[in-house]
Amino acid sequence: MMGVAKVSRKPAFMVSTILMVVGTVYAKGTEMYVCTAADGVRTYQNSDSGQGCVPLNLNPITVVPAPKPVSKTPPAVGGSASRKTASLDSRTSADFNAKDDRMKILQEELRLEEGKLKSLQDEYKGGQPDRLGNEKNYQKYLDRTSRLEKDIKTTNENIDILKAELIRLSD
């Protein structure tokens, strides 16, 4: 039997096996069957072996090409203003909408990171956070304080990155 693949119950293996089998089917243009044995084990094959086999309904795959990147080369020395205008005119409204959407997403992420930073700083209290009930062991308290310091540093770095990206997009 050609094209038979046993699939275990592990999802990652099952997905990769199905994709491999489906890719083979599309490449060859043959029909594919899913057969379930009495013990519940599924097999995928390219022929109907009888009981428990059902044809696999494979919808065609739609491929959408990525948009072509916009060239960001500066105009030649002595270039006219009409070249610059023409390059701006070549950008579609979708390009501007995508930029606006990206800026809105970054602004929302920045707002969330700033809120997270405020929450962390409130809990940290300048290096003297309140001890929690489960921190009778002083080392647990020190570990949490260290984690808060690290989280504050990481959040500050994230905020700096988001601000730099927003500045880059606004140019």
Brief summary of the model shown:
By secondary structure, this protein is of the alpha+beta class. Helix content is 54%, strand content 8%. Strands 1-3-2-4 form a four-stranded antiparallel sheet, with helices on one face.
Largest sheet: 4 strands, antiparallel
Helix content: 40-55%
Strand content: 5-15%
Poorly predicted sequence stretches spanning 5 or more consecutive residues: none
Annotation field: number of helices = 4
Supply the helix-strand structural class: alpha+beta
Counted up, domains total: 2
Strand ordering within the main sheet: 1-3-2-4
Mean pLDDT: 77
**What Rg is obtained from the alpha carbons, in whole angstroms?**
29 Å
Overall spatial form: flat
Q: How far is the first residue's CA from the last residue's CA?
A: 61 Å
Number of strands: 4
What is the element string, with H for helices and E for strands? Answer: EHEEEHHH
How would you describe this protein?
This protein has helices at 11-28, 81-89, 93-124, 138-170; strands at 5-6, 33-36, 42-45, 53-55. The protein is α+β, with helices and mostly antiparallel strands and 171 residues long. It has a four-stranded antiparallel sheet with strand order 1-3-2-4, with helices on one face. It is flat and about 70 Å long. It starts with a strand and ends with a helix. The model has no long low-confidence stretch (mean pLDDT 77).
